[in-house]
UniProtKB/TrEMBL annotation:
Residues 289-313 are annotated as: Disordered. Residues 44-145, 169-282, 307-365 form the SRCR domain. The lysine tyrosylquinone cross-link (LTQ) is generated by condensation of the epsilon-amino group of a lysine with a topaquinone produced by oxidation of tyrosine. Its main location: nucleus. Its EC number is 1.4.3.13. Mediates the post-translational oxidative deamination of lysine residues on target proteins leading to the formation of deaminated lysine (allysine). It comes from Rhinolophus ferrumequinum (Greater horseshoe bat). PANTHER family: LYSYL OXIDASE HOMOLOG 3 (PTHR45817:SF2), LYSYL OXIDASE-LIKE-RELATED (PTHR45817). This is Lysyl oxidase homolog. GO terms for cellular component: extracellular space; membrane; nucleus. It is found in: Nucleus; Secreted, Extracellular space. Keywords: Copper, Disulfide bond, LTQ, Metal-binding, Nucleus, Oxidoreductase, Secreted, Signal, TPQ. GO terms for molecular function: copper ion binding; protein-lysine 6-oxidase activity.
């Protein structure tokens, strides 16, 4: 039997956390570079943007026609096989919902299922070549480990043509060489192309362009800049321009998705009559640029939040919940995409969404699932204890109503000394816990006899099982 109890440590209160969990390991991906005959006649490439050379939408050329792979039933094991087809040692991740943009043409594979050890994608199971009920909004992508297979021949891999594209965007402050506050919220727009960082000509620059740039950098909105000051400053400096035209709608998740006009090597003039584009962004509550700005934001009256993120490991990620009629609820993931996620992120004070997760990846609704009187169930709530059979691997502790703070977790085995032991002092484990509303840290775990007598007084003794309500 495995009793679990949580006790209040005045003045902080109590916490219940998730105990043990285990997961099955997946087979180690093979790194053999040899190819079977099954891959002959197929060619592979990574495409889409924004991306790095070892990631992208997977496309396969079969019978002279390029096509994509649907993300239905796609797994990391399938990504391992495809990354090896592309000449990489293994995959580190995969993407769904056309993260690198939707492809065109055929969808060659659907419901692709691999064990991870196959030498060729043709050894995996699927619905058959060209048999799919997906759209290109479900194109799968892979993120391969940036390590090539030794002796791998690139004859089977077709890389995307090295066309010009914006890989990164940053703001460079125009004045001030000393220590600057972070993050940088205003400055000259610079884009990184294949050959380095370049300025952007401001001719035709719009607030929609600024909105996209600020969103990429994690800011919810943009504001006007002192154009006269920057134009005067530009006359005293020399700038290298890489873009002479940008036209965004304002909803794009990345500047590379906007219409771009690049300078060519034979261009004789660059940005005639114009100057470098300048953007000023408004930081969200978590990223206020200065203490004065923080105080100004705190002084504004704030109503009750009507949207929140729950279940995420870091600020800015989690399950989307909205408040309606006094009750928090979730959002269905049907048609949930990067545009919808970006609206939520900006409303919460962040920039453009990096990824729109579906399928309850951040957990289902943390409404209460366990109550106090639940002997034999796999869960308890605050202020309760319960007994568990030896064959139950995990004990869930419902912390739905627990507020952030410092707590103590206590686990006791054989609390009533019903099983004979030579030493009962090592049957209790006690840990300090910290809960910030998103994550739980468990530290300073000790057995019962590891505490001094004074420290041990902070913990109440286990009361027995006359009732599963702790009093």
């Amino acid at each position: 039997m495995r009793p679990v109890s949580v006790w209040q440590w005045s003045p902080w209160g109590l916490l219940l956390c998730l105990l043990c969990s285990s997961c099955l390991g997946s087979p180690s991906p093979s790194t053999a570079p040899e190819k079977r005959a099954g891959s002959q006649g197929l060619r592979f490439r990574l495409v889409g943007f924004p991306r790095k050379p070892f990631e992208g939408r997977v496309e396969i050329q079969r019978a002279g026609e390029w096509g994509t792979i649907c993300d239905d039933d796609f797994t990391l094991q399938a990504a391992h096989v495809l990354c090896r087809e592309l000449g990489f040692t293994e995959a580190t991740g995969w993407t769904h919902s056309a993260k690198y943009g939707p492809g065109t043409g055929r969808i060659w594979l659907d419901n692709l299922s691999c064990s991870g050890t196959e030498q060729s994608v043709t050894d995996c199971t699927s619905r058959g070549w060209g048999n799919s009920d997906c759209t290109h909004d479900e194109d799968a992508g892979v993120i391969c480990k940036d390590q090539r297979l030794p002796g791998f021949s690139d004859s089977n891999v077709i890389e995307v043509e090295h066309h010009l594209q914006v890989e990164e965007v940053r703001l460079r402050p125009a004045v001030g060489r000393g220590r600057r506050p972070l993050p940088v919220t205003e400055g000259l727009v610079e884009v990184r192309l294949l050959d380095g960082w370049w300025k952007v000509c401001d001719k035709g620059w719009s607030s929609h362009n600024s909105h996209v740039v600020c969103g990429m950098l994690g800011f919810p909105s943009e504001k006007r800049v002192n154009a006269a000051f920057y134009r005067l400053l530009a006359q005293r400096q020399q700038h290298s321009f890489g873009l002479h035209g940008v036209a965004c709608v304002g909803t794009e998740a990345h500047l590379s998705l906007c219409f771009l006009e690049f300078y060519r090597a034979n261009d004789t003039t660059r940005c005639p009559g114009g100057g470098p584009a300048v953007v000023s962004c408004v930081p969200g509550p978590l990223y206020a640029a200065s203490s004065g700005q923080k105080k100004q934001q705190q002084s504004k009256p704030q109503g009750e939040a009507r949207m929140r993120l729950k279940g995420g490991a870091h600020p800015g990620e989690g399950r989307v919940e909205v408040l309606k009629a006094g009750t928090w609820g979730t959002v269905c993931d049907r048609k949930w995409d990067l545009h919808a996620a970006s609206v939520v992120c900006r409303e919460l004070g962040f920039g453009t969404a990096r990824e729109a997760l579906r399928g309850a990846r951040m957990g289902q609704d943390v409404s209460k699932r366990y109550e106090c009187a639940n002997f034999g169930e796999q869960g308890i709530t605050v202020g309760c204890w319960d007994l568990y059979r030896h064959d139950i691997d995990c004990q869930w502790i419902d912390i739905t109503d627990v507020k952030p703070g410092n707590y103590i977790l206590q686990v006791v085995i054989n609390p009533n000394f019903e099983v004979a032991e030579s030493d009962y002092t090592n049957n209790a484990m006690k840990c300090n816990c910290k809960y910030d509303g998103h994550r739980i840290w468990v530290h300073n775990c000790h057995l019962d006899d590891a505490f001094s007598e004074e420290a041990n007084k902070r913990f109440e003794r286990y009361p027995g099982q006359t009732s599963n309500q702790i009093v």
